[in-house]
Write a structure and sequence with these properties.
The protein has 493 residues and is of the alpha/beta class. It is built from 20 helices and 14 strands. It folds into four domains: 123 residues, Response regulator (Rossmann fold, 3-Layer(aba) Sandwich), CATH 3.40.50.2300; 163 residues, P-loop containing nucleotide triphosphate hydrolases (Rossmann fold); 80 residues, Helicase, Ruva Protein, domain 3; 70 residues, Homeodomain-like (Arc Repressor Mutant, subunit A), CATH 1.10.10.60. The longest helix is centred in the last third of the chain and has 19 residues. The protein is globular, with a radius of gyration of 24 Å.
Length: 493
């Protein structure tokens, strides 16, 4: 299969070292005693930053010029500290903002299902509380010893599956063109690798390659990040600053998760695509961009267009060329070839003899659905290298590393019987007449909360699957859950 290297970070700086020379480490735990104790203990070796909530952690990642090399996170975080949902969402947030950051989960919510699912989402290791500090420090050292490989030559994909041959052909065909390319594929499948291959195979390869994850930036900051701003354009703008379009120059600008681009900004991106013109915030001077645009999404943009969340003209402009990066589960025995690639790399890095898979373990891996795609496979290779160096990995050893519930399809609810338009109006009329305190916002919120809770029950707590059941993006579901929780806290009792 694929991914000779994991996705390149959106950060242009070395992610391993903070300005004081220490490796940067992020601790996320809502228990101040645990956070402070870990910060003190690990602060001798690392530049530690602590956060008590998912929002605090995301805010730090958005502002950091140097992403942490490792994040040590709890699953049970506010506003639902007795459930793992916020921690699962934080894993996705960290990987969206800083793909190179390793994640170690340190949690009291340590049942086997949570551990498996956290690893499938992208966590490298899972440690149950309470953990011995010295053991934890050794684990962090081992995890950080594994490094992603450098940029591979050619297209960077590994495997012989027909889907990869088609992808390679398309990348070579489209690389020399100045027109946009839309890359589709699931999270963790290698979309940024395809984007960087388009750049390396083009005549722009000596020019900058900049990547921006549209889901990883606050909507209020996207415009300034893309187009730059003039001095005094807004509070805190003490000087002028170039944006990604300007910095990309004649190179390639990769816009990941383009489906998350705010609707009010889409016309401005369309203008750049049509005539190359844009303006910094607070300036009237028109500037021109010659960067080649490559966009990626794990959403169905055609559906987003039909439902009014994405402009049809922008979609057609972005999808002059379209390529699809296949999911790992669709690539047959290429997954074994890719595992062997990672096994060789990480055994060499750790100075350990490589593990081997038993025949039954190979059969099981060949049948596994890999909900976390290549990122999950990479972390499996790291854990097996650490735990079974020089040994044969049997079926039981491998099963312990797999997210069994995460790869099973969620239960499908029976087809609902929907009310006709007339019956819906009649029902609404009755409720409004019978309730003098009727409030539309409160009523809609109750229905929304009920559907979200139902979807989570059907998906057994897996928010990615719940989002699919609801027909919305995972990030949108997280935001709606946050909004509902905030409304509950602020509403009068």
């Amino acid at each position: 299969m694929l991914w000779a290297m994991m996705s390149m970070s959106i950060f242009p700086h070395n992610p391993l070292n903070a300005p004081d020379g220490k490796t940067a480490l992020l601790i996320v735990d809502d228990d101040p005693l645990i956070a402070d104790s870990l910060g003190y203990f690990l602060g001798r070796d690392y530049a530690v930053t602590t956060a008590a909530t998912r929002n605090e952690a995301v805010s730090f990642l958005r502002q950091a010029t140097i992403p942490p090399a490792l994040a040590l996170i709890d699953l049970g975080l506010p506003p639902a500290p007795h459930r793992p949902d916020e921690g699962f969402a934080l894993i996705a947030d960290i990987l969206a903002h800083a793909p190179e950051t390793r994640i170690v989960v340190l949690s009291g919510q340590s049942d086997e299902a949570n551990a498996r699912h956290a690893r499938a989402l992208g966590a490298t290791e899972f440690v149950a509380k309470p953990a011995d500090p010295d053991v934890l420090r050794d684990l962090i050292r081992r995890v950080l010893a594994f490094r992603d490989t450098g940029i591979p030559q050619d297209d960077g994909f590994i495997g012989d599956h027909v889907s990869l041959h088609k992808l390679r052909t398309q990348l070579r065909q489209y690389a020399a063109s100045p027109f946009p390319v839309l890359i589709e594929g699931e999270s963790g499948s290698g979309k940024e690798l395809a984007a960087s291959a388009l750049h390396r195979l083009s005549n722009r390869s000596e020019q900058p390659f900049l990547a921006l994850n549209c889901a990883a930036i606050s909507p209020s900051l996207v415009e300034a990040t893309l187009f730059g701003h003039g001095k005094g354009a807004f509070t805190g703008a003490t000087g002028a600053r170039a944006g990604y379009f300007e910095d990309a120059s004649n190179g390639t600008l990769f816009l990941d998760e383009i489906g998350e681009l705010p609707l009010d900004l889409q016309p401005k991106l369309l203008r750049v695509l049509e005539n190359g013109e844009y303006q910094r915030i607070g300036e009237t001077q028109a500037r021109r961009s010659t960067a080649r645009i490559v966009a990626a999404t794990n959403r169905d943009l055609k559906k987003e267009v039909r439902e009014g969340r994405f402009r049809a003209d922008l979609y057609h402009r972005l999808s002059v060329f379209t390529v699809n990066v296949p999911a790992l589960r669709d690539l047959g025995q290429d997954r074994i070839q890719l595992l062997e690639h990672f096994r060789s790399i990480y055994a060499t890095q750790a100075g350990l003899p490589p593990f081997n898979l038993s025949e039954k373990a190979v059969e099981r891996l060949s049948a596994y659905r890999f909900p976390g795609n290549v990122r999950e496979l990479r972390n499996i290779a790291i854990r097996l290298t650490t735990k079974h160096a020089g040994k044969s990995v049997d079926l039981a050893d491998l099963e312990a590393e797999l997210d069994i519930s995460g790869c099973e399809p969620a239960a499908v609810p029976p087809e609902p019987t929907f009310l006709s338009g007339e019956l819906m109006v009649a029902r609404a009329l009755q409720e409004i007449q019978q309730r003098p305190d009727f409030n539309l916002d409160a009523t809609l919120s109750r229905w929304e909360e009920a559907y979200i809770e139902a979807a989570q029950q059907l998906a057994h707590g897996n928010l990615s699957q719940a989002a699919r059941l609801l027909g919305i993006n995972r990030t949108t579901l997280y935001n709606r859950i946050d909004t509902l929780a905030r409304d509950k806290r602020t509403s009068p009792q």
